[in-house]
Design goal:
Layout: E1 2-4, E2 9-16, E3 24-30, E4 33-44, H1 46-51, E5 56-63, H2 75-89, E6 100-110, E7 122-129, E8 132-135, H3 139-142, E9 147-154, E10 159-167, H4 171-201
Parallel strand pairs: 5-6
Antiparallel strand pairs: 1-2, 2-3, 3-4, 4-6, 7-8, 7-9, 9-10
Protein name: Exoribonuclease phosphorolytic domain-containing protein
Organism: Salvia splendens
GO cellular component, one term: nuclear exosome (RNase complex)
Length: about 200
Amino acid sequence: MTYCNRAACYLAVLKTGAVNSSSGSAYAEFGNTKVIVSVFGPRESKKAMMYSNAGRLNCNVSYTTFASPVRGQTPETKNISAMLHRALEGAIILKSFPKTTVDVFALVLESGGSIMLYDMVAAVSVSCIGKNLLIDPVSEEESHQDGALTITCMPSRNEVTQMTVTGEWSTTKINEAMQLCLDACSKLGKVMRSCLKEAASAPQD
């Protein structure tokens, strides 16, 4: 995939399995920005047990010595760690792993500045089971689907960036599924923008 900023177009590289010792990891490269993210856990934690029966999420962002003028853990990197925590906390079901922790480490290999976007990207999938259409189906529902449709789009611009279709669809049904996806993406985009605004306006410690 290719992203464009004001100066030029550059290739985005996304790879999983970057750190073998982790539970999950990925490498991302956007122009001159290169980051490795690794996830460890859920794993038992006495500290988590002291707080609540829900799981605990820890996020840490650090820079290599050659990544940028930033060195080590500074107030700036602590703020970025907090931003990463807020971004992920709402997506993880912490109650699903009580009294344990999940640790997310982001290592910035090279910092090329902000990445300019035309818009945020939202994604929604729909399964067709008989005459019914189900938005964002669970695994059990997917196992009985006759077809699947996934759309990623830029909600504010109302532009589809990717569409994947599997199975057999009638023209009427696929049009209905596409509209369901686009409507859901629009609602999701509003939630994403709201979260970003709240994070940006939150008082800094």
